[in-house]
Inverse folding.
């Protein structure tokens, strides 16, 4: 069990301070220091800043452009789920790789992926992304839920694609 240190323990942690025995200096609570360090290490893991998800999507874009379905699928967790208007849902990295093989066959030279919004905490995050290809004829948005694995690598756990190909209804027209 990790004991949360008090504010005083945080501020005294690792400093030399006089002890009761003849004014000698000693490390304040060396056993307690270990507990404080362990607590900080656990806390720091959860306070890691979120990565630049655009960098991760740029890697995926490069894989699309190269026609590398395996590299695209490597961006997903082993038990990931992918929902798309272009195909049946894919469950698991192998199924996602097979789907990307169809989508990336021969490469997609003008594929674009852009993060519009992102957020999250700890080991879970989300991104709202825009995608386009084929000169903008195929375009839409995706919502991805990212999970940081034990190896500290962020991968997509769930992704849902939405195309922008439908006619937009702007409400009743005035005549």
């Amino acid at each position: 069990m990790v004991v949360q240190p008090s504010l005083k323990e945080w501020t005294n942690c690792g400093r030399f301070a006089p002890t009761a025995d003849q004014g000698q200096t000693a490390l304040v609570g060396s056993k307690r220091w270990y507990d404080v360090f362990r607590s900080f290490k656990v806390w720091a893991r959860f306070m890691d800043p979120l990565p630049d998800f655009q960098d991760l999507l740029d890697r995926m874009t490069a894989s699309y452009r190269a026609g590398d379905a395996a590299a695209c699928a490597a961006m997903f967790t082993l038990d990931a789920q992918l929902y798309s208007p272009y195909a049946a849902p894919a469950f698991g990295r192998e199924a996602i790789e097979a789907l990307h093989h169809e989508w990336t066959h021969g490469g997609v030279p003008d594929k674009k992926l852009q993060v519009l919004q992102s957020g999250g905490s700890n080991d879970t995050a989300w991104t709202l992304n825009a995608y386009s290809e084929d000169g903008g004829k195929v375009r839409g948005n995706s919502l991805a839920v990212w999970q940081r694995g034990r190896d500290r690598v962020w991968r997509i756990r769930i992704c849902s694609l939405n195309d922008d190909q439908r006619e937009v209804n702007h409400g009743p027209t005035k005549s």
